[in-house]
Structure formats: C-alpha cells, structure tokens
Design brief:
Blueprint: H1 4-44, H2 58-81, H3 83-86, H4 90-103
Helix pairs in contact: 1-2, 1-4
Length: about 120
C-alpha cells in the first residue's frame, strides 16, 4: 500500500509535470510562430531567412528544458504513485494546452470553422 503522504506528493508532482509539459510545448510553438514571422519579414526586407534558426530562440530552448525536466521528474511520479495512477494525469496536459492556447490568443484553434 502507498502511504497518504507519498500518494499526495505523487499527485502534486504529477500535476506539476503536466503543467511543465504543456508549458514546454507552448513555448516551442510560440518560438516557431516567431521564427516564421521573422523569416517572412527577412524575405520582405531582402535578407537571407535561413539565418533565423528555431533552435537558437530562447523560447524554444526553455521549452526543450521544460520537456526534458518533465521526462526526468515523471520517473519520481511513477515511483511514488505507480503507473496506473500516473497515466490518468496525461489527459490533464490537454487541458493545460487548451489554457495556453487561449492565453496566447489562439482561441480560433479551439473552435470549429465558421464560429
């Protein structure tokens, strides 16, 4: 049996990892949007758009850091609550992603066409 303290710690850490995972994805998406806009501006200005790299963007690197930390911290979650409980938290990442999409002004991605 898992003690209540271990269970609550595992649930709390699992919530944090779902948030970190969604935040990492949102940061990387935001970096890709920024690079696409910067490349379009570079083309309009007659400059080389290949000089703008996605992997050199701080947002993208922080997103990668959050995703990497999520993978490592998830091991602690599995040790505290087990796979059967930890797997239930994967769906919460989708909820966080929807929240970040709305916060970043991408509400149209959530609505069907014509709304």
């Amino acid at each position: 049996m898992v003690s209540a303290a271990r269970y609550l710690a595992g649930v709390g850490i699992a919530m944090c990892t779902t948030f970190m995972s969604a935040l990492g994805l949102a940061l990387q998406k935001k970096a890709h949007v920024y690079v696409a806009q910067a490349r379009a501006a570079a083309i309009r200005a007659g400059k080389d758009p290949d000089l703008i790299k996605t992997t050199r963007q701080k947002r993208w690197l922080f997103g990668l850091l959050f995703l990497g930390l999520t993978a490592v911290v998830s091991l602690a979650v599995f040790a505290l609550v087990g796979q059967s409980v930890a797997s239930c938290f994967a769906s919460i990442t989708i909820v966080w992603n929807i929240g970040f999409a709305c916060a970043c002004g991408r509400r149209s991605a959530l609505l069907p066409a014509g709304d």
